User: Fold this.
Amino acid sequence: MALALHIALGHLRRRKRQTVVSVLGVALGVGFFIAIAALMRGFQTYFVQQVIDVAPHVVMKDEFRSPDRQPVELAFADGAVSVRGVKPRDTVRGIREAGAKLAAIEAMPGLAVAPMLRGPALLRYGARDTPVSIGGIDPERERRVTNIEKDMTEGRLEDLRSTANGVIVGIGVAQRLGAKVGDTVTAVSPAGITQSFRIVGIIATGVTAIDASEAYVLLRLAQVLLDRPNVVNAIRIRLEDVREAEPLARRLENVFRYRTESWEESNQNILGLFVIQNAIMYSVVGAILLVAAFGIYNIISTVVHEKARDIAILKSLGFRAADIQRIFLLEGAIVGIAGAFAGWAVGLGLIELLGQVRFEQMGPVIQGRDRFLLAREWWPYLAGGGFALAAASAAALIPARRASRLNPVEIVRGAA
Amino acid sequence: MSVLLRAEGVSRVLPGPQPVTLVRDIDFSLAPGEFVAVTGPSGSGKSSLLYLLGLLDRPTVGRVSIEGRDTAGMSDNELAATRLARLGFVFQFHFLLPEFTTLDNLLIPMRRLGRWDEAEREHRARALLASLGMAEAAEKLPEQLSGGMRQRAAIARALANDPALLLADEPTGNLDTRNARIVFDIFERLVAEQGRSVVVVTHDQEQAARAPRQVRLVDGQIVHDSGRD
Assistant:
């Protein structure tokens, strides 16, 4: 092995320029892979983090996944039954016995839970008005389930309780109304109830759609405003371990029958997009490495061709076919390993460079959004390096086998 | 008389649409310490015979045995191992590995054999080069040597593993008269002082005459063998 390595290194040293170009080819492939992986994963991780942070991990809603089955359908489960003109029962929507469910869920370990009644309303301030989604919350529980407290730029969550008829509005809502903390706005609900609220806080989540449409009041006040006494239409859960969200959602839905969504289900479209995004990234980077592998194939083929005489003499000296093959396989592996190491350096450098880039940001700058979000993980280094070594060895295999099969007699005869 | 190498009824035919017979019905045996010159017109099969005797090629018919062992049953790897330990080759072209110094070129077959440790190997290689008047060439690359020096380095490499038999295929073909004489001087010394066997293929009658035993090949057949009783 040491001897084969000695000879392989001798060959590569003699052809410095070609060796360097081959190594660079591999290095660029590995480096770009690492940098792009950091970029993509950074963005995706940030995005998922945002999604997880902003919203509760599991939400139970006051609706069912499938409409209730009619008695005739239950009676003739296998029959060709078709029921038409079914009139839905006119019931008060909402999660029934929410208090008991809340207590049952709260008894589970590793989670926090909060009730909510959400409904539409119109906020009016002077001559201006804007539609909002009013969320009735329990501040003590809410702060354990969402980031609402962190997102508040003015006021405190407790002020909802300490101020009579307090409301917290999104920064976009406040801007549209032209209202500030301390101003009194009027809320009108579809139920026809009008009520005055004093703005006690402003929230800015960074998500324009939320900031421009949400308002929070005490649960009790929302129930009055929306004319739905004692009703809760969402139970929201935050978990210590977000990976538990999906199994918990399925368990709760099985028990309580209400549609229960985990954050994964709610954001399926985005998570699905990430899968496609990753597929694109890996194919592009794979293509780069494939090109690099062809480069390696090329150099080792050339070496084998040029070294036919040396191969012949090594064989006549008593080297076996396997010894010869090992020499050229090693050459490929050396290029692969050198390329992987150089690629790590390229990747590190690229990540540092990308980390320096700053974007001009429009509007209010949210923390961490004026630059690339980079995930500094170790696995792309391992994966890129491993793939480079595998590609280089595979590329070297064909010429190495050809070299091992060369017949020394033919070459010696031809060279004389 | 002990026998180092023996060929019995050996023929070598290159297959193809029109098979070419390289050598036919060769009977030849070589004793330790013999110096044989193989001569003949070009195309008479001298080199082909040498490759057969050197276990680089396998006969189509007949058998070749070395030190009493039949080579027909040996695998390619066993043949390679035999070449490595017992045979040395010199060709018309030196075939030194251009990336490595003269010393390294000698050390490569020694490392492959692994009979001695590295210090011993280097000591032997340097002694071998010195004995051929090449001590100062050890650290040089082949391209830095003259033609005669390269061929002597190639001989040194052929002797690196202390072979019983040295096979030379037109070793002086690329050399001037003076260097050709030096090469044959070396062969004579190998035989006289170290008891090795040497088989040299040459078309140079004058040099061939220095060998005690002459074999002449015409059209792939031995037409004259001065050593045959």
